[in-house]
Amino acid sequence: MIRATLVSILWAGAALADGCPVAPDHIAALQPLYEALQQVDNDFEAQQLSNEMWKYWAQAPDEASQEMLDEGMSARASWDFLRAIERFDTLVSYCPFYAEGFNQRAFVNYLRQDYEAALPDLDRALELNPRHIGALSGKALTLLAMGRDFEGQQTLRDALELNPWLSERHLIQPLPGQEL
Q1: Where are the TPR repeats (predicted)?
Q2: pLDDT of the residue at 174
Q3: Which domains does the chain have, with CATH numbers?
Q4: φ and ψ of 116, to 5 deg
């Protein structure tokens, strides 16, 4: 038992030392989905396209990172935020160039109402993937929750440019000197 644990620790350390492979590039596959979001006629169609996008964003760079992502998302879904944060911490340490790890950790922190912790992760996710609609809408919600309404409204507008059907669209407010 001790030997198996030691081997597991050594394997995990080796995997971390070797680093995560580059995240898959889905720009070409996502582009038609972004375009289709501008053409759909209803929420249902938009949600189907959004679901397709999430399949790409949730595709981790390798088997180890996919397992970390899946475990973290499962823990979050069962409200085990400590376990979810632990898995996402491990994921972003292992794969610092994979946007979804940061986005998912931010989501858990948002749910925990730890907006100060969520915001840097959202910024990092958007640095890695500027057109990640989930990270954009998450950043908008986080900024609004922090009372940073102007920035939140600007970010929400950026998200709505990519997906005008976002459920958060009802939160849009006129900016100073502007009408809707």
Answers
A1: 99-132
A2: 82
A3: 25-169 (1.25.40.10)
A4: -65, -35
